[in-house]
């Protein structure tokens, strides 16, 4: 084991001892070509994490898109992420949904489960508990559509695993803040 | 353009080709000089420039030269630099200057040609994904796919390049868009809703800053390139604020000239090769007032030991610079000029007295007495420090602009050439681009035809862009390239001596050209000097020559650039005299 070196310059700033937090950021951008590339490129260039990412135009008239990014980092890093993203010319606003404590987060998943007999019945029973809808079925498979917090979907896929889970497609986290105001 | 088209402007929208829109928009933006290199994908724009007398186009020899020349032009005038290059290799050759301008916050608009729209994505001849390549190294960029958007895009590009924290903006224009006809719209009313940089400081931040300043006992102003970028007015306000407070001033490499080097409270440059008094003042101060600087690693040294006992005020127009490296107590997000104005106004309004900092000044005087930039006398060969010192003495009373390449000579220039005014010192600070200085000098000279423009160079750096001497000759730009020739990549050699057991791996240049003959081959004048006794006369000969000169100054080969904060060390552990080689520990060895 090599001994831990002492941080000696900005290159070596080590925040490992600081706790990492998970944050959901809503980024409102002008929907112009390459805008997603700018945001994503910034994350990779500066060594920030992306746990999930969703994007779509939300206001056609204003050409506004909403990018939702779930990221992790130390408090210092998260502060930098927000400032660096805001620096991009087409970015109108960055909203820290997690920090606002008024955020609602949802994710949608399509889950394919194949099986016969008892496991198939069990899968359907669990789906009902999770309020997942069956959107396609064959004699040997179901496709479930499930919406909820990411943890709920994790739980659901965990339970489906022994029952013949084939594949999962997830949207990533969407978010919005409670109350009457925008942003 | 036909005159009858121009008279129609009042009543109807002018319609013109994309190429004409480019030229018209540049003129409306006040562009008088641009730097470029033609090629297939920009021929329509070059055609529109053919009969255009109000824009001077400087033809470079390599696109990188156009970019650095535009940077030199911008930095020495405060205006936006403009470069025009073709698609593919033209654009990729611009990547270095674009990145350089980004790192040093230089306003620049780069127009690149692109293959016709219908060929984009087909791997066409001289096609490259210019917006993709420059996305991460430019402040912003555009691919203009519709001629109707072209005029607006160009005006928006200038707005973005020159406002907020300045930087390079790239406009990629496919050839068919240059041929297509569309409306011309003027720059009035062009704005970008998502881009609204904050320039005015908040009142409470200024109030907090003034409270701290009034109570300081060991204060220091730490100023940077932001003061220069903010315009000459900011430098003037800095001087007034300093006069009101009496605080000592240091500056980053990029900020030299904002505060006069001849002033008694000037500490010299801060950082790795900065002044002993500046670094010690930064380390021991109780209040650091950072104005338009960004706590770069060359400045901070060991972050965890950086100025441990001070409270810090940070004025920066870019909110992302604040708390990026060093935590500060009072962030002031604003343009330097506006912040300085508010500080000075508040200081006067509150009738604050100069704090008693006599003990601090005494301490600073002791550090100054160390005379950290002293060097041994010439011992046969010319010492590089001596060469810069003589150059300074013989040019200081003239209207002089200095650019540099990157390496030891750059640091010696920063240490031994002194600046009284802003915009006189052009160097590649953030990116550290060898080959910046010669083309930058071309750009500076184009902006200031009657001034003395000197590129203080190293023989290694300058060979990266040597061909631009030909540009200077063609355009009658009488730049002086003053090469401190030690036959080594001096800074690399120095680090190899200090950190790699004197194993000089590939840092010695065999077969250097005869720079005098090379100058003559280009149609310039060549001067060589190796004797300290002849140096003054030859420098004067260089200055007096009405045309470009390459001055080959043969200097002491193994001279090290000192003082130096070894990588990984704090400010108060500077190496002053000779380096023995064991000052730098294992941690420092891993640094850049």
Could you walk me through the main structural features you see in this protein, from its secondary elements to its overall organization?
- The complex is a heterodimer of chains A (183) and B (592).
- By secondary structure, chain A is α+β, with helices and mostly antiparallel strands.
- Chain A has two domains: 19-101, ACT domain (Alpha-Beta Plaits); 104-177, ACT-like. Chain A, domain 2 (Alpha-Beta Plaits).
- Chain A is 28% helix and 38% strand.
- Chain A has five helices and nine strands; from the N terminus they run E-H-E-E-H-E-H-E-H-E-E-H-E-E.
- Chain A has helices at residues 35-45, 75-87, 97-100, 118-129, 150-160, and strands at residues 21-30, 52-59, 64-73, 91-96, 103-114, 133-138, 141-148, 165-170, 174-177.
- In chain A, strands 5, 6, 7, 8 and 9 form a five-stranded antiparallel β-sheet that branches. In chain A, strands 2-3-1-4 form a four-stranded antiparallel β-sheet.
- Chain A is elongated, with a radius of gyration of 20 Å.
- Residues 1-12 of chain A have low confidence and may be disordered.
- With 592 residues, chain B is an alpha/beta fold.
- In chain B, the strands form four sheets. A six-stranded parallel β-sheet of chain B has the order 3-2-4-5-7-6, with helices on both faces. In chain B, strands 11-10-9-12-13-14 form a six-stranded parallel β-sheet, with helices on both faces. A six-stranded parallel β-sheet of chain B has the order 16-15-17-18-20-19, sandwiched between helices.
- In chain B, helix 4 (63-77) packs parallel to helix 6 (95-103) and helix 13 (276-284) packs antiparallel against helix 16 (358-369).
- Chain B is globular, with a radius of gyration of 25 Å.
- Residues 1-11 of chain B have low confidence and may be disordered.
- Chains A and B meet through helix 1 and helix 2 of A and strand 6 and helix 25 of B.
